[in-house]
Amino acid sequence: MNKEVIEMIHRIGSERSIPVDSLFDAVENAMVTASRKVLGPNANVLSAKIDRETGRLAVYGTKSVVDELEDERAEILLEEARKLKPDAQLDDDIDMEITPPDFDRIAAQAAKQMITQRIREAEREMIFARYQGQEGRMVTGKVMRFSKGDVIVQLDNAEAILPFKEQAMGERFRFGDKLKAIIKEVWDGKTERDPAVPPVKGERRRSSKDPQITLTRRDPKLVIALFEEAVTEIREGVVTIRLVAREPGRRSKIAVLSSDSNVDAVGACVGMKGSRVQMVVQELQGERIDIVEYSSDLRRFVANSLKPAEVESVEILVDEGASGAPR
């Protein structure tokens, strides 16, 4: 093992924020595997150690003490064994260094392969850690490619998939388009998936070990998040979205309420000359947006919901069953 590998371990550990000790441990484990291949099945390889300063590699294992040598990879003569352990006896197992001759080249190659693998694992872990628990949050990404109707989206530092069935009706995307979507599921690539979220077609091309970020543009949360982004009064808590009804790709209706009598909730969401609502409509590729004022008075709320129609009266039918609730 040469110093080049040692320097590479320290450099990658620093650049990728991977603990250096974990890289050394991974490389030493790789050395055990590589030495077993070189020494053959009869050798009893136990461990490998790399000097963190010099880069010297030592492989350790056991050999059986014999009076006649048949396989030097697994056996040691009694005379030689007693140089290591003065009280050694025949048939004893001696712990000793068993580094294969000319092992440095093989070791360096195995080390580089293991480091590359560890980097990929660390990146997968970081991606999952960043997005874990973010289901329901809106993210912005760039369209990178397509696969049988699915859209592969590049987020800040990870790829996500927008399955065809999670796209709104009539949506069209082109390479390089920016889009906003809701995170539907974050899967670590290892544990059993949520049965409520079936696999998507794009997974056939991905490693089963890769974290999978699944997006949706059908969720009503997307409408809420877009208005939160466009309307200052919503971000400040003055205006709240109380209800959302959506037919993805066709129309959405939101009911809004202002906590300040000086702020018109509907007007705040529409914006000057419709500027705010048009930002949402544009992102939803022309989906119609209706905004109505929410009211706890059911009759008034129904009348508001039917605007611009002039409502003369509202009759609430009450279920005479156990609940006595309007129907």
Structural class: alpha+beta
Beta-strand residue percentage? 25-35%
How many DSSP E strands? 12
Helix content: 25-40%
Q: Determine the CATH topology of the largest domain.
A: N Utilization Substance Protein A, Chain:P, domain 4
Shape label: rod-shaped
Q: Which CATH class of the largest domain?
A: Alpha Beta
User: Strands of the largest sheet, in order across it?
Assistant: 7-6-5-8-9
Distance between the termini: 78 Å
> Helical segment tally?
9
- By CATH, the architecture of the largest domain is named 2-Layer Sandwich
Low-confidence stretches: 201-207
CATH superfamily of the largest domain: NusA, N-terminal domain
Query: How many domains in all?
Result: 3
User: Whole-number radius of gyration?
Assistant: 33 Å
Order of helices and strands: HHEEEHEHEEEEEHHEEHHEH
Q: Mean pLDDT, as a whole number?
A: 86
Major sheet size, sense and barrel closure: 5 strands, antiparallel
Concise summary:
The chain has 9 helices and 12 strands. It is α+β, with helices and mostly antiparallel strands.
